Amino acid sequence: MGKAKRPKVKASRLKPYLKASATNTKHQSSLRKPTSGAKPLSPPIPFCSTDRILLVGEGDFSFSSSLLRVHGCTHLVATSYDKVSTLRSKYSQAASNIAALEAEENCIVRYGVDATKLGKPGVADGGGGGKEVKKGGFDRVVFNFPHVGGLTKDVNRQVRHNQELLVGFFEAALPLLAPSGSIIVTIFDGEPYELWNVRDLARHVGLKVERSLKFQASAYPGYQHVRTVGNIEGGGGWKGVDRPARTYVFEVKDGGTQEAPRSRKKSEDSDSEED
Q1: What are phi and psi of 245, to 5 degrees?
Q2: Which of 11, 139, 267, 270 has its CA 20 to 30 A from that of 197?
Q3: Using CA of residue 110, residue 211, residue 270, residue 159, what is the dihedral sign?
Q4: Kind of pairing, strands 75-79 and 207-214?
Q5: 149: left (phi over 0), alpha (psi -120 to 50) or beta
Q6: Contact by Cβ (8 Å): 167, 159
């Protein structure tokens, strides 16, 4: 039998595949199954050590403390909604975290700060964060696991309360961003949190999702997720760090400004997701 002739394939159809093949050959070691001695990749985090970071809604300040101790973020303004006396009674472990932050020259701790009134002068008892919380002063404004607490047992009302909290926060945080700055929000997966529609809320105030990534508590050694109402007596029980959550990184829309819009218009945006 004669040999069958192979059909000719145009070079243009091969080029992308050849290019990819060359790339894969060059980096084939990174695609191999890691050996037992290989170090696992570190989870991605949306922070740099040089970032000026404002954190709102801190519980026991363990997240801020981890940014300082582990990731070398030394320009922090860490704030809590609770007054200092309330915070210490709810989270006994907070004292050591606060002490570590206050020992750093460029780290500031503030109490009684309302996430919806950031940077606003004349707010009673420093609710706006004080003079350190200023317009254009931050590369990152962070709100981890925002929640109003159990205001009602009605799910729909509770969703609306949390949506109002987030919209108020976005509007207050927007003017605080430096050029190319971002707002970072982490919430749990699943209901009722998905009902908050965090992407849409941000879009209506002039923000878009730059990326989102799986929140991994292991990326922040020393961090522990605490409840809004305080520690569980005797420990144990509820473990927030074990529940799947996602971090959303928002940036100002193209052509937008760092001012909260007076009128809100719907528009479409896209985001990339990382695991």
Answers
A1: -145, 160
A2: 139
A3: negative
A4: unpaired
A5: left
A6: no
